[in-house]
Amino acid sequence: MTVASASIINNYFESKPLTPEHIQIIIDSVPILEHLDVQLTEKFYKRLLKQNPEFKPFFNETHQKLLRQPRIMIHFLIQYAKNIQDLTPMIDFIKKIASKHVGLQVKPEHYPKLGQVLINVIINLFPKQLVHDEFIEAWTLAYQNLANLLIKLESEQYVEKPWYGFKQFKVTRLQRECSDVKSLYITPVDGSPIPKPKRGQYLCMRWLLPGEKHEITREYSISEYPKNNEYRITVRYIPGGKVSNYIHNNINVGDIVYSGPPCGDCVYESSSKNLVFLAGGNGVTALLPMIEAGLTEGRQVKLLYSNRSTDSRSFGKLFQSYKLQYGDRFQVVEFLSRGRTIDPIDKFYRRSLTLEDLDFIVPEDDVYLIGPRTYMKMIEDYLKDRNITVKLDYFGPREI
To answer: Using CA atoms, how far apart are residues 173 and 184, in angstroms rounded to an integer?
Structure first.
């Protein structure tokens, strides 16, 4: 894997505006896209990966099997078609996709193959009487214009990154955090100084595991603000999880791993507001550097921390040390759904978190949320209904 430089790209494809006729064709496609739903995008991904196996590292098998990726893509296509005349209502959505692409190290040269497969799938699934030369031209131009926008947004981010591609790192330390969680400390093989990430960012890492034909990509939060020129990632063992099994059972100090630069938009923001952190299981890893910053800045910090038991709880000793150091400015409420409770950090309940536990949160609070998808969706929806802004990252296709 080589590390290259990047530059801003304004128009990768020839820029050509859509005609009024083209625009009408795209708008008229919306009801059919809605009818086809994930059938279209599921077929797209299957055909893409069959015809272009080199794309497999970009996609998580679980997200494909559970149709998370196809669902978010068909939602995106429908919104794009509806807003084809003015993309302003969905520009934030587009920017989030561009940021995800930067983390995965998607390159401009990937877009022609993606477009070719997408247009062919649209041609195959749309009613034959609608698929004529102008229809194909309209969708081809619409795709190329969207690709140009994404490539430009991505290239603007790439030029700000300390490297482009996946860089060699060496494992310097391994540390057990609890019964099923392990931390890895990594440093650049070339000895170069690591850039300081924003608190809350993650590393996108590529793994070529024994017996696998293709590399596997995983995103891991940087779980400690860097010290000693090392990044730390913290990984929970998942039965059947290819990479987590390898990390827990096979990786050793001195091994070489590959990582992209720090990425992610769900980052800590300094202010005088009270901080509320909602952590489900290993989601706490993304929040650790933020909790440290909030306490250091003198803010009031409250952590609602959900785990199965104290046996599977990471960083309990660290939080206990914060409690001793910062007293009432740091409050922890643990929700332990099953198993024994030994050495709680602060206040705790032997049950799962409920929505009523969130009623103390007010719109003036800074709220950060990371955890399992169902946990996050439940909390996000509840707080949004109360006009409370939540900063979060689903680490994969966003729930819709």
So the answer is: 6
Judged by phi (left if over 0) then psi (alpha if -120 to 50, else beta), residue 191 lies in left
Q: 111 an active-site residue? A: yes
Q: Pick the catalytic residue: 45, 80, 143, 154?
A: 154
Q: What is the pLDDT of residues 197-241, one digit of tens each?
A: 999 999 999 999 998 989 999 999 999 999 999 999 999 999 999
| CA nearest to 328, candidates 305, 367, 302 | 302
- Confidence class for position 79, pLDDT limits 50, 70, 90: very high
Regarding pTM above 0.85, the answer is yes
Among 80, 111, 158, 231, the one annotated catalytic:
111
Verify whether residue 54 is a known catalytic residue: no
Superfamily of domain 3-158: Globins (1.10.490.10)
**Domain residues of the chain, as ranges?**
3-158, 166-259, 275-392
Query: Which tokens sit at 31?
Result: 């009801």
- Report the CATH number of the 166-259 domain: 2.40.30.10
